[in-house]
Design brief:
122 residues; alpha+beta; 3 helices; 31% helix
Length: 122
């Protein structure tokens, strides 16, 4: 009888924990924005050229394992980016040489944006 009582308490605690996590999960924002900055010993033009050459991402970014060129969408370069077992579709959406590149990435039903801006340095 003691084991049955202990099992019921254990199952009840698991269900309570799942309910609490469900409520907390629904309170999280649907979108998330983060930013960061670094200083590079290179010109804006050199950094822009590197960031804009999507096909070479695996050469300098270890997270990308493979890049596959897809047909253009509305006249814009389109790629499939592979990161391990995940893949994303990326379209060169905004091109403002040498200051800004935007590569929105799509995975299943979520949409992520990569914004690369190169401010003037003193």
């Amino acid at each position: 009888m003691y084991l049955l009582y202990a099992a019921l308490i254990f199952v009840g605690l698991i269900l309570l924990a799942a309910g609490v996590l469900g409520v907390l999960g629904r309170r999280l924002p649907a979108e998330h924005t983060s930013s960061g900055s670094i200083e590079l010993g290179a010109s804006q033009e050199a950094v822009y050229t590197l960031i804009n050459d999507i096909g070479k991402f695996p050469e300098w970014c270890k997270d990308f394992t493979k890049m596959e060129r897809l047909p253009d969408e509305n006249g814009k370069e389109t790629w499939r980016q592979f990161m391990g077992r995940n893949s994303f579709k990326s379209v060169n959406e905004t091109m403002e040489p040498p200051r800004r590149v935007v590569h929105p990435r799509q995975k299943i039903q979520r949409r992520m944006h990569d914004y690369h801006s190169f401010p003037d340095l003193p």
